[in-house]
Amino acid sequence: MGSKNPAKVHAVQEVLIKEPFEVHSVDVPSLVSAQPFSDEETVTGAINRAKQALASADAAFSIGLEGGVYRQNGHLYLCNWGALVTPEQAIYTAGGLRMQLPTYMVEKLEQGYELSAALAANASQQEGAVGVLTNGRISRKEMFTHIVRACYGQYLVH
Question: Which CATH number does the domain housing residue 144 bear?
Fold first, then answer.
């Protein structure tokens, strides 16, 4: 998997825990902006992470996860994407939870800050924007787990 981020790694581990795979994480760049500002850029980042992780290991597949934001109808929304890539270059993608960002976050993002810097001072890497925006009712790991399930499910049926 193409990240060392604990929430992302734990999401992949949770989905694959009963499967015949070992999860190895590597720190690879997304090759997109530090703060992706569209669905296209965010999914591209996820695909890039999965491809780079796969290139660094002999694996049945690799998973990349990426968070970003996108603008719709004058509002800025949180978005999250995942990609599963096989050695044959089959690519399975899935998107996750979307929610409107509050004004204070939008202002920071428009000033050039990354989403992590626009969060409340007490937000942890585990909690992330989704944890802050849902008052802890949805964790970052839980959000990414749904995406990993969707990517892995597609892989299994193809």
Answer: 3.90.950.10
Secondary structure (DSSP) of 2-39: ----HHHHHHHHHHHTTSS----------SS-SS--SH
pTM for the full predicted model: 0.94
Euclidean distance between CA atoms 68 and 45, whole angstroms: 9
- Which parts of the chain register pLDDT below 50? 125
- Structural domain including 21 reads 6-157
If one counts every other C-beta atom within 10 angstroms of the C-beta of residue 96, the result is: 20
CA separation (Å) from 79 to 42, 60, 87, 93, 142? 8, 27, 27, 13, 14
84 within domain boundaries: yes
pLDDT per position as a tens digit, 25-45: 999 999 999 999 999 999 999
Phi, psi of 84 (to 5 degrees): -115, 125
User: What size, in residues, is the chain?
Assistant: 158
- Residue 18's Cβ-side half-sphere holds a number of Cα atoms within 13 Å equal to 2
* 22 bridge partner residues: none
